[in-house]
Specification:
The complex is a heterodimer. Chain A has helices at 7-24, 28-34, 39-47, 66-79, 81-100, 103-115, 230-266, 278-306, 313-338, 340-343, 349-356, 366-380, and strands at residues 120-123, 139-143, 146-157, 164-170, 180-186, 192-197, 208-219, 223-224, 268-269, 272-273. Chain A is an alpha+beta fold. Chain A has 3 domains: 2-118, Butyryl-Coa Dehydrogenase, subunit A, domain 1, CATH 1.10.540; 121-227, Butyryl-CoA Dehydrogenase, subunit A, domain 2 (Beta Barrel); 231-380, Butyryl-CoA Dehydrogenase, subunit A, domain 3 (Up-down Bundle). In chain A, the strands form 3 sheets. A 4-stranded mixed β-sheet of chain A has the order 1-4-5-8. In chain A, strands 2-3-7-6 form a 4-stranded antiparallel β-sheet, covered by helices on one side. Chain B has one domain (5-224): 3-Layer(aba) Sandwich (Rossmann fold). Chain B has 6 helices and 13 strands. Chain B has a 9-stranded mixed β-sheet with strand order 11-10-9-12-8-1-6-7-13, sandwiched between helices. In chain B, β10 (163-169) and β11 (174-180) form a beta hairpin. Chain B is globular. The relative contact order of chain B is 0.17. The chains are: A alpha+beta, B alpha/beta. At the A-B interface, α1 of A face α5 of B. Bound molecules: flavin-adenine dinucleotide. Flavin-adenine dinucleotide binds at residues 89, 122-125, 130-131, 155-157, 200, 203, 208, 358, 361-362, 364-365, 367-368, 371 of chain A.
Chain lengths: 383, 270
């Protein structure tokens, strides 16, 4: 099917499939049920060089593009969205270092992240600041060669598990979004603690946690870019990371479609396999078409970003929004194809549906994606 | 001499488990057109070699893993797989004269290859192969090299440049051995969980040139290699025929029990 993948890209797919079959599928239901962070699987992903995909060769990475990241993310998502989320969230945590970091910061942090020895997290959201990220209240006050952080971040993926955190805080109040700066904060820094662990509908094996900063002293050298560049850093990061959220949608939808198709050929009612009913056939046809369309859009967005194009916000938002909507629809339809069995934990589709929902919410809700798309359309026109 | 801790892992290509066929004329395994894999126990040997290498590297020493196999030209594919799993180098021992080797001739060929390499400190083998199933090559090789051998290792408790401490599960107890290096060990599946190949490993495996050593390279005599160097010769390999007979017993439960009892008595089972 993927006739235009290079040999290296096919290797990425093969490695991910092996990880999915051997390491993820056998344990995913249990990890989900008990809400256990998949540490061993993330280690395996690291050993297989998959974190290197995001990172330039000069810093221990493989210098591949967003397209390769999307390939890996899609395949891992076929196995389990908790795993894929933890993988992608580390990328989200260190992309700011790639796009904004100084040479010194890159040298210091990226090699361990490329190797998977350390993982990262991205801390923007707060209890009172979700979609309206410009209204965050976490403060960063300059004190000599340091900044002092105070505040609470909420729902941070990889919280507690990650070693390196990109934290957004207000360094210049009264300037709104332009008063926000980004900082690298290491786990273990005094005054940095972890709060409540969330109990969630889906992606239950991924860690979602509060980060609490109390007079946390950060070297000024840990600021990313210059003062006031935080919001731009976040937006530029999302431009790069959103296609991978789309790829998560493609992967989980593909997995649900595969289960539904197999099931429809073996389940018999009225003396025939249910796949002989046109109602089922049409659902399968629609599901498959949507998956292909979503994949095409995600791959296109990724290729455009990799080509070096600068204005990618619209396409990036489109791929995230469309593919996550497809993931929601296809996983719900997969349950419908399986009927009551689909509703039971014995089959994987109920988990896929619960997991898929997050894709419409995090890294900007799909309403926010539509806002981004519309603004870009109005500002720059259709092309 | 440079101070690199060199580990040699001996691996073998075997038929994929599900489809073993025997050629009734020659009494040998049919290998043509059959999917082949790394002998499953050897995958643990590769993994353990790579883990020891990583351990040595973490403690600041240099280490390197070389995978070796004796086999036909196609066995090169398992050497490439070994590289994708973390081996640094691979060597293929291939020559018509090696064909038909029993465990002794195999061990002797491996010994001659190992002798050509320098600075090796540890040899790791799978505890047995899936096709031959003897478990003899490891101890024979160690004997020929005059080094200690510990079979069926289930964990490496400690390793330094000079010594290795190995734990293994015997029938009813654990045994721990400390031996000096160089040494050879064999491993089974309780020692580790082999990793998934890495992307850099796969790329390296694709581009690596794998040297092939023949009988002349190993300075061996034809009479010591392959079939002519073998003490055991396979006269016949066959799939045993199982004959089953099924008899349904009918009637009331009492009658059935009665009949079953009579039958078992006739067969001297009760
Ligand atoms: C499991 C999980 C993991 C997460 N991981 C991270 C993480 O790693 N790092 C991080 O920083 N954040 C993370 N988040 C936070 C996530 O990005 C936010 O939940 C998201 O941005 C939405 O914010 P909110 O939940 O406060 O919703 P709100 O912003 O309160 O939105 C509520 C509703 O109003 C709509 N809405 C809001 N504003 C507008 C508008 N202007 N126009 C139209 N509709 C609007 C929204 O679309 C939504 O439907 C995570 C969240 C979850 C649930």
């Amino acid at each position: 099917m993927h006739y235009f993948l290079s040999e290296e890209q096919q290797m990425i797919v093969d490695i991910c499939r092996q990880i999915v079959e051997e390491r993820i599928v056998p344990v995913r239901a249990e990890l989900d049920e008990k809400g256990i962070f998949p540490k061993d699987i993330i280690d395996e992903i690291g050993k297989s060089d998959l974190f290197r995909l995001f990172i330039p060769e000069a810093y221990g990475g493989m210098g591949t593009g967003i397209f390769e990241v999307c390939l890996a993310t899609e395949e891992l998502s076929r196995g389990c969205l908790s795993v894929a989320t933890s993988y992608a969230a580390s990328g989200l945590g260190f992309i700011p270092i790639i796009v904004m970091g100084s040479e010194e910061q890159k040298q210091k942090y990226l090699p361990d992240l490329a190797e998977g020895k350390k993982i990262a997290a991205f801390g923007l959201t707060e209890p009172e600041a979700g979609s309206d990220a410009g209204s965050i209240r976490t403060r960063a006050v300059k004190d000599g060669d340091f900044y002092i952080l105070n505040g609470t971040k909420q729902w941070i993926t990889n919280g507690g598990e990650a070693d390196i955190y990109t934290i957004f805080a207000v360094s210049n109040p009264g300037r709104g979004a332009r008063g926000v700066s980004a900082f690298i904060v290491e786990k273990g820094t005094e005054g940095f603690e972890f709060g409540k662990k969330e109990n969630k509908l889906g992606i239950r094996a991924s860690a979602t946690r509060e980060l609490i900063f109390t007079d946390c002293k950060i070297p000024a050298g840990n600021m990313l870019g210059s003062e006031g560049m935080g919001f731009i850093t976040a937006m530029r990061t999302f431009d790069q990371s959103r296609p991978a959220v789309g790829a998560q949608g493609v992967g989980v939808a593909q997995a649900a479609l595969e289960v539904a198709l197999d099931y429809s050929k073996t389940r018999k009612q009225f003396g025939v396999p249910i796949s002989s009913f046109q109602a089922i056939q049409h659902m399968l046809a629609d599901m498959a078409t949507q998956v292909e369309a979503a994949r095409a859009l995600v791959w296109h967005a990724a290729k455009v970003i990799d080509s070096g194009e600068k204005n990618v916000a619209k396409l990036s938002a489109m791929s995230k929004m469309f593919a996550s909507d497809v993931a929601m629809k296809v996983t719900i339809d997969a349950i419908q194809v399986l009927g009551g069995y689909g509703y039971m934990k014995e089959y994987p589709v109920e988990k896929m549906m619960r997991d898929a929902k997050i894709l419409q919410i995090y890294e900007g809700t799909n309403q926010i994606q539509r806002n981004v798309i519309a603004l870009e359309l109005i500002k720059r026109g259709v092309l | 001499m440079e101070n690199i801790f060199r580990i040699i892992v001996c691996i073998k290509q075997v038929p994929g488990t599900t489809e073993i066929k025997i050629n009734p004329e020659t009494n040998t395994l049919v290998r043509e057109g059959i999917e082949t894999v790394i002998n499953p126990f050897d995958t643990y040997a590769i993994e353990e070699g790579v883990r020891i290498k990583e351990r040595m590297q973490q403690s600041g020493s240099e280490a390197e893993v070389t995978a070796i196999t004796m086999g036909p030209a196609q066995s090169e594919s398992i050497l490439r797989e070994a590289i994708s799993l973390g081996a640094d180098k691979a060597i293929l021992l291939s020559d018509r004269a090696f064909a038909g080797a029993d465990t002794w001739a195999t061990a002797l060929t491996l010994k001659n290859a190992v002798k050509k390499l320098e600075g090796w400190r540890l040899i790791i083998l799978g505890k047995q192969t899936l096709d031959g199933d003897t478990g003899q090559v490891g101890p024979e090789l160690a004997h020929m090299l005059n080094i200690p051998f510990i079979g069926y290792a289930s964990s490496i408790e400690h390793i330094s440049g000079q010594k290795i401490t190995v734990k293994r599960l015997a029938e009813d107890r654990y045994e721990t051995f400390e031996v000096r290096l160089p040494a050879a060990i064999s491993v089974g599946k309780d020692i580790n969980v082999p990793r998934v190949p890495s992307l850099r490993g796969k790329l390296k495996a694709k581009n690596e040139t794998i040297p092939v050593l023949n009988i002349a390279d190993l300075s061996m005599d034809e009479k010591d290699a392959g079939l002519s160097g073998s003490y055991t010769q396979v006269i016949k390999i066959f799939t045993p025929k199982h004959v089953y007979e099924v008899k349904m017993i009918e009637g009331s439960p009492d009658e059935q029990a009665e009949e079953l009892f009579t039958k078992l008595k006739q067969l001297n089972i009760v």
